[in-house]
């Protein structure tokens, strides 16, 4: 599912540097769930969290009531008028049924321009083609705990020596892009609060961020590893073919430990650097 800041293009890289051992996997800023759905399900205890209540309600309905959700989506119209009706109803928070609220929100995601939730996309889309995806997501989420909490409360609740947190917060100085998805309040003080929280946990964390001096400075600490990489900048591709977007991964463990234990494994950092 397309989402602001989604990790579709980076999911392989991110999963490849997960620690070798953990018993609890907690995705703190879940968003579209690209990493969770790409991660192989195992015997670990899994948690999906997002601060956006409409998003977590959608995931709960996919997990618990997929047939009702699909039924509510059967005869929706891909039209500007219906899009505006749905958007206004969600803005007023006037929908009592969790399933209808989830169906409206899913319409908004699928029919909005670039999944931005604000403007009608004016693009053809067959809603029925999503029904098999909803059913697959239902099976994948069957044992996943879904939370709707502030990151600090969530981390403190689930922190153990065997916990592993993957975090993809709103990137620094990009808050304006999240104003319609429940993260409009994520400011510089919250980036610092996130750092302070992570520096005091018992478990392990992996953090994805845009590469900038501020983030590098606040995570410049003993036993913290920072790896840089680039990806294609989809926005700039329109006028600058081949433009790259610099990003970093930050962790409190050795991100190369999987490679060291399996020398034949492909290492994406080496591919990025042409080694």
Q: What is the helix content? A: 25-40%
CATH topology of the largest domain: Rossmann fold
What's the average pLDDT?
Answer: 87
CATH class of the largest domain: Alpha Beta
E-strand count: 7
Major sheet: 7 strands, mixed
Word description of this protein:
The protein is an alpha/beta fold and 275 residues long. The protein has two domains: 168 residues, 3-Layer(aba) Sandwich (Rossmann fold); 81 residues, Adenine-specific Methyltransferase, domain 2. The protein has twelve helices and seven strands. Strands 3-2-1-4-5-7-6 form a seven-stranded mixed sheet, sandwiched between helices. β4, α9 and β5 form a beta-alpha-beta unit. The radius of gyration is 19 Å and the shape is globular. It starts with 10 loop residues before the first helix and ends with a helix.
